[in-house]
């Protein structure tokens, strides 16, 4: 059983990641923390609560940052719809799951009270986690690993070379990359390799009310180059937790461009020691698309 904190900005692919995690008894989510990103933090928090209510799960939710460390935020409503969930309607949220402590204090409290280490699944801008490490540096000892969706080997989706989650808060990403916490990165290219298509959605839809509700989100999710394929980036992190054998990882030195004039938020992934820096992460280089797709289709 793997114990987790999920830091998220739901988001259609976040919703899919959560659904996969909720449906798998090998994963136990202790806490969900929310952050700005695909949409504002108020809506992302509401979405996390809606999804929990829909799945009948009782996981505490703590609301986090409304902007980056430098006070900025770039949303992705044109991708995820105005409500962040592809404009699909979910039942009213159970507000009783919302903690009255914020994301950072809630993670700190959970880690301090735990007698063992807990993993963090980071599928959104990294602001909450960066603030945690700044305010409570000793907490890093309680984090067994961070598995994040973010960064890219090559070109980006938010900037020319910058992936959305890192682009939103490069300073925060920098803190995570330098934290010395074991870090596994599932970058943009891996999500692009393992897209789902309309046929997959049709088969999910056919699986009953859950599948039907999931499929509704894709009606308003604009992620692929055409409207036939969809990037489900965040969902890949959950499949990595359950099936690391689907992925080929490379040890690398990973850094983020903070000062770049044209490349702010770009990740530099050096898996060949060119920069002569110690390796600080494992980065997915390949995914077995067939194995992933077979597994994914069986989840509904
Ligand atoms: C990442 O950005 C968000 O739009 C997605 O939810 C995912 O976490 C992809 O770049
Ligand atoms: Ca996300």
Automatic annotation (TrEMBL):
Ranges where the Inosine/uridine-preferring nucleoside hydrolase domain occurs: 4-293
Keyword Electron transport included in the entry's annotation: no
GO cellular component: cytosol
GO molecular function: purine nucleosidase activity
One example of a Gene Ontology biological process annotation: purine nucleoside catabolic process
Domain of life: Bacteria
Pfam families found in the cross-reference section: IU_nuc_hydro
Signal peptide as annotated in the record: none
Keyword Hydrolase in record: yes
Alphabetical keyword list: Glycosidase, Hydrolase
Name of the protein: Inosine-uridine nucleoside N-ribohydrolase
Species of origin: Oenococcus oeni (strain ATCC BAA-331 / PSU-1)
Higher taxonomy: Bacteria, Bacillati, Bacillota, Bacilli, Lactobacillales
